[in-house]
Amino acid sequence: MVLNYIWVAFFVIAFVVACVKLAFTGDYDVFPEMMNSTFSSSKTAFEISLGLTGVLTLWLGIMKIGERGGVVNVLARILSPVFTRLFPDIPKGHPVMGSIFMNIAANMLNLDNAATPLGLRAMEQLQELNPRKDTATNPMIMFLVLNTSGLTLIPVSIMVYRAQMGAAQPTDIFVPLLLATFFSTLAGIVVTSIYQRINLFNRTIMLTLGGMCLAVTAIIWGFSQLDKEQMNIVSTTVANILLMGIIVGFICAGVRKKINVYDTFIEGAKEGFSTAVRIIPYLVAILVGIGVFRASGAMDMLIGGIKWCVEACGGNTDFIGALPTALMKPLSGSGARGMMVDAMATYGADSFAGRLSCIFQGSTDTTFYILAVYFGSVGIRHTRHAVACGLLADLAGVLAAIAICYMFFQ
Question: How many Cα atoms are found within 13 Å in the side-chain-facing hemisphere of 409?
């Protein structure tokens, strides 16, 4: 229901803004641009789905082998003490625990191509436990908030963009970005737990969160000892070794269980193809709405309004140049990436706005895209508090990014 209101708001606000621009500025190009955006966004949505088809068939096939080979069940048992508290409505030891872990691990390593199919598989398993098939359950919402908060340990792609844009030290945003995304994820867990009345003040959760803080600190210290080239090589190598290790490990587990690995892969791959086709309408809907909103000039007006308010309050407006990236990130990953590159091109890769735009890009994820794809894949129409929790996690990430960037670069 919330997505319904947001989607309608995109079109209504865009139409009103376009009418105002036409009436007061005589901008006759605004409506053609809006219509062109509907066609280009629809094409983009289909291309994304088409690109996902191969990846989905691969990874859902591998996941099916992992399930039959018992790997997912082993992961579920290991994670059970923590996940039974974050996901109290999931039966203890259910295979979905392993799928959720695999998805979160892929996101942390910035392996987007692996994370999406793993996440879709987890959603299908959560839907099997759902008594009301059109309504999001508490575990679904907690799982999606963990996705939308965008916890990333190795932001390789962002550092590559900085290098291409001429940054003197492309890796200088690594530590600030890691801190910002950690706060975003932590805020997402806390907010969702409050909504769902989950008690976080227990020994297991506190030890886990404390361990995560220590792990983040250790990673920050370890990478701070490397130069930019070593950091890129190490992070890329570790990510790829882990990814290949998962594939080989799942296949070996299947062989050990004496299952027909090839036939099992094909069975899971067929599910990947059908899932990719099923999400096309949801992708078209959300991307067209975002495209029209941008083409109308509503996004520019929003940025201008925020800048005026900050100036009126006597605040520092250095962060305004990077703000389009933060506002676009919940709506569109590619759009936010474009905004990030534009900020670096306009202000300089090593400027405050250039660095902050990169931290914005990595500190959160594409909330509405994730909600549309994941909920759409299982036919969820009533999202309950998913949007609110996801956006509050995004807001925490944005505020943390601004504060941390001022701490490091001002």
Answer: 25
Query: pLDDT of 37-52, one tens digit each?
Result: 889 888 877 876 777 6
- The three-point CA angle 101-365-373 to 5° equals 75
3-state secondary structure at position 382: strand
Supply the pTM of this predicted model.
Answer: 0.72
Residue 215's Cβ-count burial label (10 Å; 0-12, 13-18, 19+) is exposed
DSSP per-residue letters across 105-171: HHHHTT-HHHHHHHHHHHHHHHHHT-SSTTB--HHHHHHHHHHHTT--S--HHHHHHHHHTT-SSGG
Q: Is 350 helix (H, G, I), strand (E, B) or coil?
A: coil
Q: Tens of pLDDT along 168-180?
A: 877 778 778 888 8
